[in-house]
């Protein structure tokens, strides 16, 4: 029951606050620990060695810090522990800001493309300078679908799994659950900062993130299919997976492309549902709303599992 309460606390904070300012956000603090790895290295072997050490140690430190904080709160009272775990979960997940940013890009894409290009920087790591309004909307829908897995389902799923498995290992449920969520978020943050083909130091974090995100990406596709009320979208998405370099992101993006019957494209990298048109403003808005519904389903499902 306390794990379910923690999820309710996290969902309530997400609805009420969205995200705290960057300077006060622990994920940003963690990023400052990762930043020294993002440098020129004398040799690839050095980069890989330090990247592997960072991928092993830094997420573990984050997990230990968060788990210890929740354990300390539990010494005050079980309710204090639940609220501390809910706060930790809130800080490792994101939905509201994602939806707001995506809807803003969609709204600006037709009336102020330059503003949409600037807004896209908060969503996707791609050069937006030459993107047409349709490609800007495509990027917004792609990013919303992909970040549902990265920003919400992965950490929330780790929290639920940690709470369920901790007693079997003789560990306290809430600290272990919060630590699991923090570890997943730390891995994902390292991948987002370092996991580029040009940065050998980021290869270990990228490979670890691929493994961690395998299940959340596929769970996000299933939840999107439910949110869009289109069971066939999963089968159609499967046919396009080979066109996406990532082993995971093709699932949620492809499901969204199929359910909306639109073309989603990152120029020079991949095209999903190539025979369809790029999303209109209304279709893109419907896509972002569908991601929002999938997010609400995620919270509800996690709460029910944690309760029982």
Task: Please give a structural write-up.
- By secondary structure, the chain is an all-alpha fold.
- It has one domain (about 1-305).
- Helix content is about 70%, strand content about 0%.
- It has helices spanning about 1-15, 25-35, 45-75, 80-90, 95-110, 115-120, 135-165, 175-195, 205-210, 215-225, 230-240, 250-260, 280-305, and strands at about 265, 270.
- The protein has a two-stranded antiparallel ribbon with strand order 1-2.
- A hairpin with a 3-residue loop joins strand 1 (about 265) and strand 2.
Biggest β-sheet: strands ordered side by side in the sheet? 1-2
Mean pLDDT: 94
In this structure, how is the largest beta sheet organized? 2 strands, antiparallel
Q: Write down the domain tally.
A: 1
Instruction: Label the structural class.
Output: mainly alpha
Number of helices: 13
- Pick out the low-confidence regions: none
Shape annotation = globular
Which radius of gyration do the C-alpha atoms yield? 19 Å
> How many individual β-strands?
2
- Terminal CA distance: 8 Å
Order of helices and strands: HHHHHHHHHHHHEEH
Q: How helical, in percent, are the residues? A: over 70%
Estimated share of beta-strand residues = under 5%
Keywords: Cell membrane, Cobalamin biosynthesis, Membrane, Transmembrane, Transmembrane helix
Protein name: Probable cobalamin biosynthesis protein CobD
Pathway: Cofactor biosynthesis; adenosylcobalamin biosynthesis
Transmembrane segments: 47-73
